[in-house]
Amino acid sequence: MAVSTQRADDTMCPHRLVLEHLTSRWGVLVLIRLLDRSYRFSELRRAIGRVSEKMLTQTLQTLERDGLVHRDAKPVIPPRVDYSLTDLGREAAEQVRALADWTHRRMPDVEQARRTYDEARDHRSRAR
């Protein structure tokens, strides 16, 4: 997939908005979690942890609008709503999970790079 070279200030670009939805703090976690199975709202919220009801609702609505999440509201009492990935959502979630897996695998290297950076910065600050 080729990434187009658009101006950095072109904030209304449609693919940029979708990328922001996919890689948002909660979007990533929702997509990865839904790879396993469908979830009811409350169990998805528990599985993700530390997300407010409002933020999870907004994230799910955004991902649903983008065609990545399917919302299945069953006409029962009490109401039951299940969330799952669409085919498009599954494809996106697999890409997001690959990035998350890479981050987990390479975290020791990132931590070492941070230490090296911080030590060099401290050294420069003391040299002034």
From TrEMBL:
Ranges where the HTH hxlR-type domain occurs: 13-111
Family matches, as SUPFAM superfamilies: Winged helix' DNA-binding domain
InterPro entries named in the record: HTH_HxlR (IPR002577), WH-like_DNA-bd_sf (IPR036388), WH_DNA-bd_sf (IPR036390)
Pfam families, per the entry: HxlR
Keyword rRNA-binding listed: no
One GO MF term attached to the UniProt entry: DNA binding
Record keywords, A-Z: DNA-binding, Transcription, Transcription regulation
Name of this chain's protein: DNA-binding HxlR family transcriptional regulator
